[in-house]
Write a structure and sequence with these properties.
This protein is an alpha+beta fold and 139 residues long. It has six helices and five strands, in the order αααββββαβαα. The longest helix is centred in the C-terminal third of the chain and has 20 residues.
Length: 139
């Protein structure tokens, strides 16, 4: 067995968490992955961890990126960043996580639709009235 063959077997391969997140395309760079882990945005098996934590197949990751929070299960281990279709084969997202993300996205969309922007910019007279109203309420 050559060195290249031993790298490809999942059981013998050891990959750091930040490198796996980068290879699975959750983050554009390893530095961003490391910063997210250190900032508490990534939990491995429901515990905060360090970027050097070795990942295993079957491990559970909870990661937060902006408004989205995902829970994924690690299916394969890789330390190489490849195309998006191959990267998506490294993990699968839990059904609860997918449902929760869709619900939150729907809530954000409905809240945004409820706050319609004004039809036009306020005129000079409108701005003066707004300022007068603000001054009256601040007293």
């Amino acid at each position: 067995m050559t060195v290249a063959d031993s790298r490809n077997t999942d059981t013998e391969q050891k990959v750091r968490l930040d490198k796996w997140l980068w290879a699975a395309r959750f983050f554009k760079t390893r530095t961003l992955a490391k910063a997210a882990i250190e900032g508490g945005k990534v939990h491995y098996n429901d515990q905060r961890c360090k970027p050097g934590k070795l990942v295993e197949t079957g491990g559970r990751l909870r990661l937060r990126q902006g408004f989205q929070e995902r829970t994924v299960i690690i299916d394969q281990i890789s330390d190489r960043r490849r195309g998006a279709p191959e990267a998506q084969m490294l993990y699968h997202e839990t059904e609860d996580s997918v449902r929760e993300r869709e619900d939150l996205a729907w809530q954000r969309k409905t809240m945004q639709a409820a706050q319609l922007p004004p039809a036009r910019r306020p005129s000079k007279k409108d701005r003066r009235n707004i300022q007068r109203f603000k001054d009256q309420n601040n007293l």
